[in-house]
Amino acid sequence: MSVDIRLASSRPAGTDLYHGENPGNIVTPGDVITADSGFMRGHGTYMEDECLHASVAGTVERVNKLISVRPLKTRYNGEIGDVVIGRIRELAQKRWKVETHSRMDSVLMLSSVNLPGGELRRRSEEDEKMMRHYLKEGDLISAEVQNVMSDGCLSLHTRSLKYGKLGQGCLVCISPSLVLRRKTHFHNLPIGASIILGNNGFIWISPTVQDKSEESGGYETNLQPIPKLDREVIARLRNCVLALAECKMLLFDTCILYAYEASLKYAVKDLLKPEVAVEVVDLVRQRLELEGS
Amino acid sequence: MLTNKVFIKKTKMGGVMKIVREHYLRDDINCGSQACTHNCDSDGKEPLEEIPISDSKLVMKPHYLVPDTNVVLHQIDILEDPSIKNVIILQIVLDEIRHRSAPIYKRVKDILASSHKHFYTYCNEFNMHTYAERQPGESANDRNDRAIRKAVAWYADHLKDTEIEVVLITNDAGNRKQSVLDGLKAYTIHEYVRSLSNMSLIDRLANPLNQMNQDNNGKVLFAEHLGLAEIQKGIRAGRFLQGTLLISRENYLEAFVSVKDQEKMIFVQGLQNLNRAVNDDNVALEMLPDSEWSCPSSMVLAEDEGKDEEDEENRALNETVVDNKVPKELRQPTARIVGIIKRNWRQYCGILQPSIIKERTRHLFIPAEKRIPKIRIETRQAQTLASKRIIVAIDSWPRNSRYPLGHFVRCLGEIGDKDTENEVLLLEHDVPHQNFSEAVLSFLPKMPWTITEDDVKRRRDLRHLDICSVDPPGCTDIDDALHCRELDNGNYEVGVHIADVSHFIRPGNALDQEAANRGTTVYLTDKRIDMVPDLLSSNLCSLRSKVYRFAFSVLWEITPTADIVKTDFTKSIIDSKASLTYAEAQLKIDDPNAHDNLTKSLRGLNKLAKILKKKRLDNGALSLASTEVRFYVDSETNDPIDVKTKELMDTNSMVEEFMLLANISVAEKILYEFPDNALLRRHPAPPPSNFDPLIKAAQSKGFTIDVSSGKALADSLDQAVVPENPYFNTMLRIMTTRCMMQAVYFSSGMLQPQDYLHYGLATPIYTHFTSPIRRYSDIIAHRLLAVCIGADASYPELLDKSKIQSLCNNLNFRHKMAQYAGRASVNLHTHLFFKKRIQDEEGHVLFVRKNALQVLIPKYGLEGTVFLNDDGQKSSSIFVYDEENNTQTAGDVTIHVFDPLIVQLSIDRSNVQHMKLSLKLVKPMIPGFSVQSVREVQANATGSQSKTSTTDLPISGKPPQKKKKRTH
Amino acid sequence: MAGMELLSDQGFRMDGRKPNELRRIRFKKGVFRQADGSAYLEQGNTKVLAAVYGPHEIRGSRGKALHDKLLINCQYSMATFSTQDRKRRPRGDRKAQEMTSHLKQTFDAVVLTELYPKVQLDIFVEVLQSDGGNYCASVNAATLALMDAGIPMKDYVIACSGSHMRDTPIVDMNHLEESSGGAEVIMAILPRCDQIVFLEMNSRLHEDHLSGVMDHVMVGCKDIFNILNQQVQDELCQKTELDKIVTTG
User: Fold this and answer.
1) Where is the PIN domain (chain B) (predicted)?
2) What is the interface pTM, i.e. ipTM, of the complex?
3) Hey, are the CB atoms on C192 and A288 less than 8 Å from each other?
């Protein structure tokens, strides 16, 4: 077995695109964004002495009168309709507490899940006792944000067939701000794997399942071993996602696919080497630029 | 600006510790040369001249010198010479000097501060171009040498566009060789100095060790000293002891070592055991086995003076006292010296030993201090120096040399010349008396000095008051002034105004440090060694009349019965209306026709002072006597022509009374505000046994002296009056003074309040506030008081009781030394006075000793000893000492204490360095002992000579210096 | 006087700096992948790691939660190998506890805590190598870590130490200078609004010198701020450039 040992060295920094000039919309905490009182205070800002100040480091975004600052990295701030992936942390009265990398645990009410046996079934006490049978601590789910409570707590639902308990696959956690908001976050990639890009920065990579059996309501896990080839594809995808995230690239299906293709000339494990990762990302970047122009 | 390059310096300490320190290297360190063609950012500091001029024949071009550490350490005398200029002292050199020798470091700093020397410190360690990293296997010394070479090389390169060369001065052969290889100019200091036209410098070169080694055939006379590491190991293991060596004054072969934390001194005897240690050195000792213990021999042994030196060389070290027949019970712990931890060599005054062969360059030097061995020096000027007093420094003491090797530093002047002798006594009493350095003077206020608006706002304006000062005639440093006026309510307002020296001397600056070090102004009979520069002492601070001056005032409201109603302290501006002498003030008071404000003020003061004094004496304050002499000096030769004791007037005591009052008031105030760090003065009550001689002496005249308390003592002294001998009481008081302890300064936090007592003044608390011009203690008191009243800011050192205490220790030392120096000066003048005459005078026996009588001569306030058995003839004395009654009897004459005598005064010139006043008994006549009186001798000598008349005219050549005797 | 000369006649400190010069500052944000925000900071030879977790649900007893604002939980520790003499430092020794509470106070003042009621924020600081100014380096590193985590703050918090030597105020003291026994003034300020959020003084300093020292420390803080802010902005700009490509793509 060969082992790769490397000594401390400065990491390759990727192509340096920045040439020193501040594009103007970059702020750091305490910076005055505007002294104009005609604007509304959005996220990442605060008012003091009649001036709007930034409270986080990031880029200023303006939507009409609303000014907000988007930090590079933050906990997930949910919005209604977001696709999220979460992990059950705790069971409570008629609800599951789900860790979604938000600042508070999200809530999945017993009433907002599809239970086996029809959508319009009444939730009985029996079901409450069975909760752990459906989802227990540590289980992963995909869900949609149903509502954002006043204290910032998210309430989730899985009332669609595409949501629910996740089976075999691989979870990658990255910064939520790196996930590009798209129409769909579920992708069946043509390379034999599916990917769910959770808005909360959790990314789920799994083998594409052809037929979804409805009877179990999605609560039974298929424990059949995955063929090695599929596993390799999943592993390669995971490393690609990590590489892209490492280089602070926004994630969406095309770029992941490009990264996958660009990485094919390397062994899966080699993608973990920083220089390889940077090279792959560079290729992706160039390809995107080419297509963009 | 910052090269921002981090380096790591590793030093191993205690084996395993690795110390990592940052070391920033810069590129903005300036070369300090005015000739520099680069843009060195100099911020105006370019001490090195553009065209350095030197007359060296070795380096023809203009050049800068770069000495290495050893050159600076050993040849500082050369560097201090005004002809050596334009020297670059590298930072690395300066650092090393700081670690190796504090006095030399201070001297180097003084040179660096003076602008006409053109010395410059170059921070080579912080410059990226000259930093040398220690290479593996390289010793610290090698690295330093390399760093020095690198700096020299940098300078050479830096100044290559100019005419100037940079010359490395090092006596290390290896370093020199390496420099030449590197293409640098390098010479030894000897080569360089010899090439200069100023030949006198050559004598001042310290001797290199190796020269001496050659001509002594390697005959080793002393045991080797142990290395420092070994000594420390030994001390830790308890095999060795560490202490300071004190050579006996009587016998130069015997010494005691005061070992730290040990009461008992340890004895060292013999040249071998002393092993080249010099008085004051910090040494390591090894105890000898009990069988070899010894005790001090009673012999007085001084190094022989006349012997030819070759003789002495050959006479090996047989001098060691080997006869260990000391009885067991007398034996003291005896040790031998195995190593020197730290040399404490200083420069020594003395004379050259006359040499038979005139042309020789090697000579022996005899120090004035008997505890210092003779020093071998090399000089070509022996003939000119033969009759001079010179200063010599010790360089080394190799194992094969009987004497330490040294070099000539400078010549003080002719032996017997007054200035020379003055300087000698200053040096020997460690009185700092050099001119003030430029650094110190730079902190003086710029002249012309004016009072600003701001000053007026911060001070109380007392210019309208009728303030005057009363001092001895000719006084120029007036630090106190007084006023007194009647208030509407019948009380008096009395003000004591003290020169506000602390306004001009700010804490921590060079001026302050210098003053703190000097501690006190030293008054010699004809000279004053100022504590602060003349501009302050005689001008800005001196409360002269008719000028506005800053003062620190103490204002009291006092009832006519001299009770204090209210005390007020304030910084003020005053306008003294008159500077009076004691006599003038007395005249004004006594003049019935004078009714001006000033006179009224003086009368008020006088009246109150008398009441105050009475109260004080009633309280048990002692009024003690000491004799003080005043010399009348010939205006032309400055030689004393007459000598008188000083007389005291009412006004003396008037001023003194108010000064005491001010001091006590201030002491109370500052102690109240600063219980921990007030600078106070205490005078401990003497242990009763101290009074034994006094009681005994008084008993012989039938008086009992009660020493149970200060009050009792004062009363019994007052009663001891013998009408037929008016001097008896004074003598008793003089004797009482001798019984007293020394009054000392201390920091209040270091002692218990009951120990604050001032015994002599009978006050529970006392400080010095009234003479800030001449005492540093008063400056501290001023600062403390200023902080109390919010007039000035405090600073950390002022609030630190241990710092104040260490300051006090220095002040106490300086005061003691100043007193000794003053006395020595009086002695010196006495000698000069009697140099030309022999005189008979009336005296009184003060003490009767086993082999001598101590005699007081009231006319001159002198005290001398009449030796009863002449040392010349060892024959037993004709006197019989009665210990019981304290008398000496010869035949039918018995001499008691207080007996009047007539003695003959003359100068004993047998010892050039130590002239002594010798007293010979004239009356009572004792055959075979007494001498004839001068008159009789003259009568016998045909009488043709006219009697040398002494003019009694008080011609004050120089204004005699003020010296107030307030030593309480 | 014996021993070392902290400020030479030529106006240099022991390590070659001038009185008003800082030590070299280097830092890197986002050194941990797991933490929400993290930073590694070197101030001379003082090296500090800071990690920020949260805001997240209260861990441990829920009673600690504050109903109207964020709960900040700090932990300061020193590595066993951080000082010259290696010794085990049980977490929560007196010195570390004191430092912990100082850090908590400092960041309570600057984080917009009212935005996150009922949740908790963890700030962990570990000193890897200590060479003076531990508090200052910790504050500066934690500020960067908080920024990295996107926690809203009023401003940067920048800390710097200073003292007074030979009538000259000096800033950013190293261990040698700290242990020389003189006074030490430590300040944490909000550089843009000139507010002092933390001030500590060890040993005694004369009142008259205090304001002078404080002014210099203030300037020192602003210098540090400029260094940090410059690099933070540069990194931000670089990131946004990347974003542009993507969004145009």
Assistant:
1) 63-177
2) 0.87
3) no
* Chain C contact probe: residue of B7, B19, B23, B24 with most C CBs at under 10 A: B24
Q: What is the DSSP letter of A251?
A: B
Q: DSSP states of B350-408 as a string?
A: EEEPP-SSTT-SEEEEEESSTTSPPEEEE-S-HHHHTTEEEEEEEEE--TT-SS-EEEE
Residue with the bigger pLDDT between C101 and A128: it is: C101
The answer to whether the CB atoms of C249 and A292 lie below 8 A apart is yes
Please name the member of A23, A30, A75 whose beta carbon is closest to the beta carbon of C237.
Answer: A23
- Say if CB B252 and CB B321 are below 8 A apart: no
User: What DSSP string runs through C1-65?
Assistant: --S--SB-TTS-BTTS--TTPPPPEEEEE---SSSSEEEEEEETTEEEEEEEEEEEEPPS-GGG-
pLDDT in tens, A120-153: 666 677 778 888 888 888 999 999 999 998 878 8
Residue C7, domain member (yes or no): no
Chain C neighbors of A289, CB-CB under 8 A:
245, 249
Q: Which of B17, B109, B121 sits opposite C84 (nearest CB)?
A: B17
Identify any residues that bridge with A95 across adjacent strands, giving them in sequence order.
A92, A109
Q: Which of B9, B43, B33 is nearest to B131 (CA)?
A: B9
Which of the following CATH numbers is that of domain B31-203: 3.40.50.720, 3.40.50.1010, 3.40.50.2000, 3.40.50.150? Answer: 3.40.50.1010
Of the residues A10, A11, A15, A17, the best mutation for testing chain C's interface (the one with the most C CB atoms within 10 Å of its CB) is A17
Q: Where in chain B is the domain with CATH 2.40.50.690?
A: 228-415
Q: Give the ranges where C67-133 is alpha helix by DSSP (H).
A: 94-108
In chain C, the number of structural domains is 1
CB contact under 8 A, C155 and A29: yes
What is the C-alpha R_g of chain C? 19
B123 touches chain C (CB under 8 A): yes
All CATH 2.40.50.140 domain ranges of chain B, comma separated, are: 838-940
At residue A87, the pLDDT reads: 93
Is A287 strand, coil or helix? helix
Residues of chain B with pLDDT under 70: 1-17, 39-45, 207-219, 250, 261-263, 296-330, 355-360, 624-648, 861, 869-878, 883, 909-915, 927-928, 934-968
- Architecture category of domain A39-71 in CATH: Beta Barrel (2.40)
> Which residues, other chains included, contact B849 with Cβ-Cβ below 8 Å and sequence gap of 6+?
none
Shortest distance, CA C182 to any CA of chain B (angstroms): 10
Topology, domain B228-415: OB fold (Dihydrolipoamide Acetyltransferase, E2P) (2.40.50)
pLDDT reported for residue B466: 87
pLDDT digits (tens, 9 = 90+) for C69-93: 889 999 999 988 888 777 777 666 8
Those residues whose C-beta lies under 8 Å from the C-beta of residue B372, and which sit 6 or more positions away, are B247, B278, B279, B348, B350
Which residues span the domain enclosing C61? Answer: 25-248
Q: Which of A53, A55, A151 sits opposite C118 (nearest CB)?
A: A151
Q: C214 to chain B, minimum CA–CA distance in Å?
A: 17
Alpha-carbon distance of B21 to B8, in angstroms, equals: 6
User: CATH number, domain at C76?
Assistant: 3.30.230.70
- Residue A41 three-state SS: strand
Q: How far apart are CA B486 and CA B597, in angstroms?
A: 11
Which amino acid makes up residue B472? P
Which stretches of chain C sit within 8 Å of chain A by CB?
A: 30, 36-37, 54-57, 112, 116-119, 147-156, 190-193, 229, 232-234, 236-243, 245-249
- Architecture of the structural domain at B838-940: Beta Barrel (2.40)
Nearest Cβ partner for C12 among B109, B126, B508: B126
| Closest CA–CA distance from residue C214 to any residue of chain A (Å) | 22
Inter-chain residue contact B21 with C14, CB threshold 8 Å: yes
